[in-house]
């Protein structure tokens, strides 16, 4: 299948198929029709899972060198067509062309990491004679693929987060059935094309475009699906956890990430990093900066510079090389963000920058004095809004940062190593970024959170571990004495 930005097919167990029922993909910038994709049915999803049973056997039987070759060829395809991938991301989603190019580059790196980690799916020997009853025995454990992985991905990173599901599944020897975000399926289909061009055996991969309400339950509840890998909102994650039953789950469910800026921080660096961290991808980023706790000694200076740079952040056409920030994924989402900001303002918050909506666009927005009880302070905004708070000490910053029900990433700006190690120990988060905003991640690191930010860890090596299980082998040796 070649990506024609009108009529698309979906990938069912390695076969490109069409359906009479379809869905529209529209550009959130102007609501123009980008493409039409098949609307998968429950029967389609059941068929994909049935075909994946044979695909899982084929995948498990693939020698490691062949898995590596397939993953590297898929990476080569993405790299060779990187501008096509970037324009697809920018057209169907929220990202600017510069943001989309960065995501495409990360996708290439993710797939190459998967190829490298495929050779390291190893076990280790076990000293069975550590127990009195184990004398005369020798053994080890090895890692085996789970079988069928069911994956559901969001709209905000429509290519690289798909790569983070498909790549590790193949590296570990599994089959995978993926349901991409309804709003942004084209990037996932284009990545599926890369794997077909890379000679991935049929049956191992399905990319099913459809409504989550119609096909999602089939995927997460089917007894043959051994693991559900989900990236998305907390409420959807809780529903999946209830329905999935006794199977492995990996869930990245978002956050409202805090960053602490102490009095000895390099203020200019902190401002630059956190402006980018707050407004990258129009704030639709699970590790994006939402709450900034700034020491009172530097608060006024930080606020002045932060507001100035936020107001200068250029919002506009996604395909323009000059644009810093595009629209939200839909006008509905922009209205939701506007409602949350207006609610905070009614409760006494002060608007320092932005606060206006135009269609799906919402200006980079900065507020201070936001009451702790309002939605903006408690929930994930998932939009271009950041809150400033004044603190008197690191202890106060940590305490307030930890008041959230989430715990994905946190940031800290300071020159004090004592402060750094105190924050590392006391911040309730899956990652602490020192002298960087919360919005930092490389694709090789373990990625996930505490509390309601999710279960398990992604990141290539760690996803592969999640997608395998240990099998113990023990030999009772013959007594020759």
TrEMBL record:
Q: Which family does it belong to?
A: Belongs to the aldehyde dehydrogenase family.
Instruction: Write down the top EC class of this protein.
Output: oxidoreductase
Gene Ontology molecular function? lactaldehyde dehydrogenase (NAD+) activity
Keywords in alphabetical order, please. Oxidoreductase
Which ranges carry the Aldehyde dehydrogenase domain? 16-473
Q: What is this protein called?
A: 3-sulfolactaldehyde dehydrogenase
E.C. number, please?
1.2.1.97
Reactions mediated catalytically: (2S)-3-sulfolactaldehyde + NAD(+) + H2O = (2S)-3-sulfolactate + NADH + 2 H(+)
Give the protein's function.
Answer: Part of the sulfo-TAL (or sulfo-SFT) pathway, a D-sulfoquinovose degradation pathway that produces sulfolactate (SL). Catalyzes the oxidation of 3-sulfolactaldehyde (SLA) to sulfolactate (SL).
Name the source's superkingdom.
Bacteria
